[in-house]
């Protein structure tokens, strides 16, 4: 019995049939993946399962990935996606759910999170109440930089509108200790989202919106690696940021 796979399906509330449809296989094949502990799906099917359940391949089939363990600096790169929209919402949900110490959302609008994550505000409030630090870095909706980037994007739903949606949602939970928000102009073309020792990074391309940006899923494995470089960048932006509500709280 592949207990790791069975538990992941239960947590994600995914049935055998649903997983089979996501992977393009027969439901009996999924059954064998679960009941036969030594059975390892083909690589493309393993990747499809991981995307559907929002878990890592090493968790479900450690033996299959042992030979491919990276030892160089790129071992911090867990996954790459040509578009942020192709990064499964279940992965975001899993990273948010597992985080215990820190949640940092340094996207220029962070608008998509409120659309894709059910009960996102309630989740943030609960995380903060349990000691997890929750931080949002946003673009100032009135700034010249926002106006320039809005012109570059050229989409119907304006950049200030998307920022205002996030501000309105944060207004509902701002009284919860541990939830903070600041304006920043230093990440107009680079978004950094941190979940303890996991991170999603999206460098924005010219004339494109966030969901069209190439995306990296990173995990911290070393000092001064890719994860730490982006984390330092986000920390510096946070220090320079202007408070959305009142005075800047002590670091």
List keywords for this structure.
single chain; elongated; 251 residues; alpha+beta
SSE topology:
Blueprint: H1 3-12, H2 16-23, H3 27-35, H4 43-53, H5 57-60, H6 62-66, E1 77-81, H7 89-98, E2 102-106, H8 111-116, H9 120-129, E3 133-138, H10 144-153, H11 159-171, E4 179-183, E5 190-195, E6 198-203, E7 215-219, H12 226-240, E8 242-243
Parallel strand pairs: 2-3, 3-4
Antiparallel strand pairs: 1-7, 2-5, 4-8, 5-6, 6-7
Helix pairs in contact: 2-3
Summarize the structure.
With 251 residues, the chain is an alpha+beta fold. It is 44% helix and 16% strand.
Q: What average pLDDT do the residues reach?
A: 88
Structural Rg: 19 Å
Distance between the amino and carboxyl termini: 48 Å
Query: How would the global form be characterised?
Result: elongated
Strand order of the largest sheet: 1-7-6-5-2-3-4-8
Largest sheet at a glance? Answer: 8 strands, mixed
Question: How much strand content do the residues show?
Answer: 15-25%
Give me the strand/helix succession: HHHHHHEHEHHEHHEEEEHE
What percent of the residues sit in helical stretches (DSSP H or I)?
Answer: 40-55%
Compute the number of strand runs: 8
Total of DSSP H or I helical runs spanning 4+ residues: 12
Low-confidence stretches: none
Overall structural class, as computed from helix and strand content, comes to alpha+beta
């Amino acid at each position: 019995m592949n207990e790791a796979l069975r538990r992941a399906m239960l947590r994600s509330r995914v049935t055998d049939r649903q997983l089979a449809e996501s992977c393009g296989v027969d439901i009996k094949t999924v059954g064998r993946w679960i009941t036969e502990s030594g059975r390892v799906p083909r690589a493309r099917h393993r990747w499809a399962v991981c995307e559907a359940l929002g878990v890592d391949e090493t968790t479900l089939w450690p033996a299959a990935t042992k030979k491919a363990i990276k030892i160089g600096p790129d071992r911090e790169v867990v996954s790459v996606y040509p578009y942020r929209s192709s990064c499964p919402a279940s992965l975001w949900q899993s990273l948010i759910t597992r985080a215990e110490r820190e949640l940092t959302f340094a996207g220029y609008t962070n608008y998509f999170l409120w659309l894709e994550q059910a009960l996102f505000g309630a989740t943030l409030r609960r995380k903060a109440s349990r000691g997890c630090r929750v931080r949002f870095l946003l673009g100032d909706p009135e700034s010249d930089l926002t106006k320039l980037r809005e012109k570059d994007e050229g989409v119907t739903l304006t950049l200030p509108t998307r920022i205002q949606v996030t501000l309105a949602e944060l207004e509902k939970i701002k009284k919860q200790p541990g939830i903070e928000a600041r304006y920043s102009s230093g990440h107009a073309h680079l978004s950094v989202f941190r979940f303890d020792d996991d991170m999603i990074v999206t460098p924005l391309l010219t004339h494109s919106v966030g969901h069209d940006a190439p995306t990296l899923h990173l995990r911290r494995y070393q000092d001064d690696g890719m994860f730490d470089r982006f984390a330092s960048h986000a920390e510096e932006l946070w220090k320079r940021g202007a408070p959305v509500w009142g005075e800047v709280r002590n670091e």
